[in-house]
Amino acid sequence: MPCVIRRLLLALMALPLSALCAGAEDFSDYQVHTLASQLHYPWAVAELPDGSLLVTEKSGQLRRILDGKVSAPISGVPEVYYNSQGGLMDVVLHPQYTATGWLYLTYAHGTDDNNQLRLMRARLVDDRLVEQQVLFRAQPMKDTPVHYGGRLAFMDDNTLVLSSGDGFDYREQAQNPASHLGKLIRLNDDGSIPADNPHIEGGAEGVYSLGHRNPQGLAWDPFKKLLFANEHGPDGGDEINLIRSGSNYGWPVITHGKDYSGANISPFSEYPGMLQPVVDWTPSIAPSAMVVYRGAMFPELEGNLLSTTLKSKEVRRVVLDGIKLQSQQTLLSELDVRLRDIAVAADGGLYLLTDEASGRLLKVVRMRE
Ligand SMILES: [Ca+2]
User: Fold this and answer.
1) Is 90 exceeded by the pLDDT of residue 10?
2) Element (H, E) at 6
3) How many whole angstroms from 277 Cα to the centroid of ligand 1?
4) How far lies 26's CA from each of 8, 245, 331, 350, in Å?
5) pLDDT by residue (tens digit) across 169-217?
6) From ligand 1's centre to the CA of 64, what distance in Å?
7) pLDDT per residue over 130-181, tens digit each?
8) Homologous superfamily of the 29-366 domain (CATH)
9) DSSP 276
10) Does this model's pTM top 0.85?
11) Is the sign of the CA dihedral 206, 287, 30, 36 positive or negative?
């Protein structure tokens, strides 16, 4: 039965619309505009209060985009270790940016033999970064240029969650609480450790959850007060997890994926004390970023999880029933391009970044009559 008819019937029966239709309406009547192009592997976008946009390029530039004009690189960005998946990664604004002026950047630092994920904050003054402070250095150092994680999300209490990948060759470290590899890290906005972080026996500073592989998307839902993370599995086993303080998400003890050789990584897909994903994507879609959609422009997407993907070249829409998977839908696959980031604009539109050597910043808006 078409949703609109169900709506009418349900309205007549005075049932809540959420009973059948919430979030399940088709996403249509949209347009995609190109706001900027020739961005070199852009990784993250953040909207400033004046409507201009900050974009990171993996090779180390932070640029500001206004009215289609792309600025020269903003000065004061730290030198990054640019190789393979390493480079300049996320940029997010402090939740009270207008008052505090802080913006936060993640990046790979070091050399081929000795590198790590770092988090810094700084203030932006006349297209210069000033008052730079390095707030976090993932330990121990590693010698692979991959699996950094590197995504940031603020929660309501001004604490900041940072995803730290397993470094690929170090997957067992995801279960070692003393290592930052394969963890989510929670910090105060000044980099100090929140007093209410979980107590994990032998845990490294800031560890909030364990057992992650390469978490690429983090999304805080201010309505439901829930934190979601997506991550890359190996061959199969990509996941969305609902993040609970101090919990273990299983990698590499439990997974639905296999090694790229086809070998089993683990005989287990469940284990006592390890949480199951909300969504398992086998085969892999390679999720990159994720948002919980809360905005005015697309009411049909309200509360949905939207993940950009690299391998399957789409925005994967996940509709939840409470905290359980209800349905999924592929959006924007007609773009036919690897997508690296997604962000919700102040007006409720969607920003997307394409993952290309000559990458684009796109904005998805409602079609006007
Ligand atoms: Ca898992």
Assistant:
1) no
2) helix 3-12
3) 6
4) 17, 34, 10, 16
5) 999 999 999 999 999 999 999 999 999 999 999 999 999 999 999 999 9
6) 36
7) 999 999 999 999 999 999 999 999 999 999 999 999 999 999 999 999 999 9
8) TolB, C-terminal domain (2.120.10.30)
9) P
10) yes
11) positive
The answer to whether 212 is a known catalytic residue is no
Peptide bond into 95 cis (omega under 30): no
Neighbours of 140 (CB within 10 A): 14
Work out whether strand 207-209 and strand 226-232 pair parallel, antiparallel, or are unpaired: unpaired
User: Which of 95, 38, 98 lies closest to 68 in space, CA to CA?
Assistant: 38
Pick the catalytic residue from 147, 180, 212, 232.
Answer: 147
Element (H, E) at 63: strand 62-66
What is the predicted pLDDT for the residue at 14?
A: 47
Q: How far is the CA of 249 from the centre of ligand 1 (A)?
A: 4
Q: What are the extents of the domains in the chain?
A: 29-366
Mean pLDDT of 332-355: 98
